[in-house]
Amino acid sequence: MERLFVYGTLRPGHENAPILENIGGEWLPGWVHGTFYARGWGAAADFPGIVLDKQGPRVDGYLFISDKLAAHWADAG
């Protein structure tokens, strides 16, 4: 099983969620520690960023778990 932490538009209920939903898998609530950047060039294009930091604040999101993730990325490349 591969795992992907999702915190932006790929989350369930957001505009890019079908990209992962069509792969098939399980969604679990999750979080990481770091700094969430809702501004900047990425955020302006709807791609906010996170800089991971064990001492940083909690950033909520979802853990997407699927045995098809690696194959999906290989097919997309």
UniProtKB/TrEMBL annotation:
<dbReference type="InterPro" id="IPR036568">
    <property type="entry name" value="GGCT-like_sf"/>
</dbReference>
<dbReference type="Pfam" id="PF06094">
    <property type="entry name" value="GGACT"/>
</dbReference>
<feature type="domain" description="Gamma-glutamylcyclotransferase AIG2-like">
    <location>
        <begin position="4"/>
        <end position="67"/>
    </location>
</feature>
<protein>
    <submittedName>
        <fullName>AIG2-like family</fullName>
    </submittedName>
</protein>
<dbReference type="InterPro" id="IPR009288">
    <property type="entry name" value="AIG2-like_dom"/>
</dbReference>
<dbReference type="InterPro" id="IPR013024">
    <property type="entry name" value="GGCT-like"/>
</dbReference>
